[in-house]
Amino acid sequence: MIDQGPSQRRIRLVLLFIAILVLAMVVQLVRVQFGPYAPAFAAIELVIAEQVEKVEPARGLIYDRDGRLLASNIPMYYLEVEVRQLTDRSQKQIAAVLSRVLVLPFEDLSAQLLRKWVDEGQFRIRLTRLISGGKRWPIVVDQIVADVLKGFLADPEAPDLSGLALVPAPKRTYPAGWLAGHVIGFVNQKGKGYFGVEGYYDDWLVGRSITVELGYIPLEARLKPDPPAGVNLVLTIDIDIQYMVESILEQAIEDTKSESGQVIVMDPRNGEILAMASWPPLDPNNYQPWLPREERLNEQVEESEEELVINPAVAGQFEPGSTFKILTMAAALDAGVVTPDEEFIDTGMIEVGGNTIRNWDGGAWGPQTMVGCIEHSLNVCLAYVASEKLGTPLFYEYLKAFGVGRLTGIDLAGEVSGQLRTPRHPDWTESDLGTNSFGQGVSLTPIQLLTAVGAVANGGVMVQPHVVRAVVGPEGVYWPKTTILGRPISAETAETLSLMLSESLGGETHFAHVDEYTLVGKTGTAQIPTEYGYDPRWTVASFVGWGPLEDPRFSVLVRLDKPESSPWGSVVAAPVFRQIVERLVVMMEIPPDQIREKWTGGG
Amino acid sequence: MLPLIALLIVGGMYLAVNARRAQAGRQVLVLQKEQAELERMNADLTAMLAELTSPEQMLERALSLGYRPAKPGEVEYILVEGYPGPPVFVAPRPPASSNMGEGMLSPAYTETLGEWLLRWLSWGVGGGQ
Predict the structure, then answer these.
(1) A476 contacts in B (CB within 8 Å)?
(2) Are A72-175 and A240-299+306-600 in the same CATH fold?
């Protein structure tokens, strides 16, 4: 026999050890490939190999003109479960924890966790909760709840939540709440923008999503590509002015017991909207009641018959009444058919196209100049000017030039065009000429009226209203330029009419007066058309004005629908204008007339 | 014996390089997760800050400190020659799109030993040209 010696024995021992190791590896390989867990292992491989992720860029942010954040994105989390990682213990504890933290039925959660998803070929599920109509909606939790759950997941002493995953998803949030809600619009749970700026600039804000393969294997890890981001928007809105306007409007609605109302503040020189308020307000953080009806069915919204008007400042048309007389008088002055001092004998009635027109008080005001006609808001006088002085073709030509019946093109979703029946319309009759002259039988949106009247404030140049001041993309900043919509009247006419309106304002209502500032304006009280003629009770009270006279920096439109305290624009809308202007001149740092004259005169 | 030792050394080096590569890859994954988490926290804090500085909150705090909105007659105006007014706000630019999938790492980090050998051999063959 050959003595193997201790070294040979050691070699054999090592070889035996290696053989056992190799055998163990082979057993594991066979188990993985052909054992009872083979399908699960195969599925993991499949999941990892095929898993791709849709990377959504962060939706663009929205700021006010001074950089205050109006729309942002905050993280929210979907609750998902990797069913293969669930244990008997974690199934029960996940259901127990979630039902307590989120106040959801334990049985419903438990049923979702106990279902044999693997048999159905699903390894990862998103937990849902029951909503109305038997529909289910994914459970979404905020950062606070997510932090609690993450704490549980990281703590071995905490309830066993093995298998639970928190999948982040951005949620649109509006830090200023209901402020400027109608202007901003909102984004639904699927990330689609509706109404306002969110709706109008949806394609720009959303950016472009990309699909990337998920790299779970460290050896294949690489930096995740960034998708093309959405642009950031800077609005023309000044959130301080917006807040002031919304507060005053809310108070006015309460004081006058009006059904609804709108206020727009615009810079007539460039069309920048400084504030646009509507009541009832829209809270974009709780937008569901404002969704279009067909969309409400897809979201967790209780069905309601009410169809709310989003941003009535651009979508709510109304018959303007006497504020429209500004346009009739502007046309007549510009056409040279009347002068401010021209006399008109008011007999209290006039017949136009077989329709008898009377004044608002039914009275006859005798001899009046054109200034007097505006000051006393005489329907008879304006109907005379339109029918006897201007004539049908010229009158409607001017109205078209003022953009009546046409979209202004403001960069807000949902604008409507209003209605103007011209002689070309089959239903037009000559009596329409008479009623249109004082703002009846013609409908405009508040923004249309303010844009048209803005031409008078801006030396005859009508500019397009807009709410976006700058578009900031990855490539640079785009500053939209002022768009001139037209020059419906000459600069001389605009100046003459401004002086007339300023002079007449004091006589028409003292409620619009602001000490040390010369303002221009006109009240309006309009009846509301119904299927059966004009409503005998309710009115739309309005006021449109601007200032200061010599150098207009703002134009303001106030509209109150169905005020109960008084039907007259001079009583309910004019004080709102005054309150707003008293704050505006301070916030916009506009010195009183005397100081400005001193500065411009070099005194 | 020498070729075996050489092979072991090369094998060892290959394993060491791959281990470091895997470690770096793991770190990339961890940092990516951390970056995403920080971005989410940043967004949350920005939104909270915006909420705290909203006009409603600021007015409430100003009123509680005894201030009230100024009336037109209470403001003193001073003309400052050459003052251009407050600067115009420009929003921060959103991040530019970047496609960092392939191509951002040198192939030297990703090629296999076989690929490296082939490259080395082809370089050796073509090296004299």
Answers:
(1) 93
(2) no
